[in-house]
Amino acid sequence: MVLDPLHWQIKLAQDPDALWNEAVIGLDDLAQCIRIICLTAKLSVPTQPEQFCSALDYIDRVPTEAIPGISKEIWEGIDRWEPRILLDSVDVVQAGFAYFTAAIYWRPRSDVLSDINRTDVDFMRAE
Q1: How confident is the prediction along the chain (127 residues), in pLDDT tens digits per residue?
Q2: Pick from 5, 4, 6, 1: which is nearest to 109 by CA?
Q3: Which residues share a beta bridge with 25?
Q4: Which CATH architecture group holds 8-110?
């Protein structure tokens, strides 16, 4: 597999049997970045203490506080730390006790999609 050096990263798998050397590319790379930003707490990475968001700080609060707080943290974190996308909306709902889910609607910025693509064409003599 040949990787475009601009938009790829090692796949973070939740399955313990997943291969360690898989990569995510393109839109999957952007989606993984969004999940990383949302699930990594501020101050948890010593070299980048302000990066990511504090959405997890709200999971023990009542829904009237948690839902707007989680939405705000997600929006600010992604808007600040993932410049390759544009956010459309963040919809947070309570899925259980101290359990919320967020639907994050986004699209790649036009300059990300306008990256130069490569298509290989083989020319051979017909025999």
Answers
A1: 454 556 666 677 666 676 677 777 777 888 888 888 988 888 887 788 788 888 888 888 999 999 999 999 999 999 999 998 888 888 898 888 888 888 888 888 876 665 544 434 444 444 5
A2: 6
A3: 8
A4: Roll (3.10)
Q: Which residue has the tokens 């600010």?
A: 76
CA distance 120 to 111: 23
State the Cα–Cα distance between residues 59 and 43, nearest whole angstrom: 18
- 3-state SS, the chain, equals CCCCCCCEEECCCCCCCCCCCCEEECHHHHHHHHHHHHHCCCCCCCCCCCCCCCHHHHCCCCHHHHHHHHHHHHHHHHHHHCCCEEEEEEEEEEEECCEEEEEEEEEECHHHHCCCCCCCCCCCCCC
Which residue ranges make up each domain of the chain?
Answer: 8-110
Place of tokens 């101050």: 43
Place of tokens 């997943």: 18
State the pairing for strand pair 85-96/99-108.
Answer: antiparallel
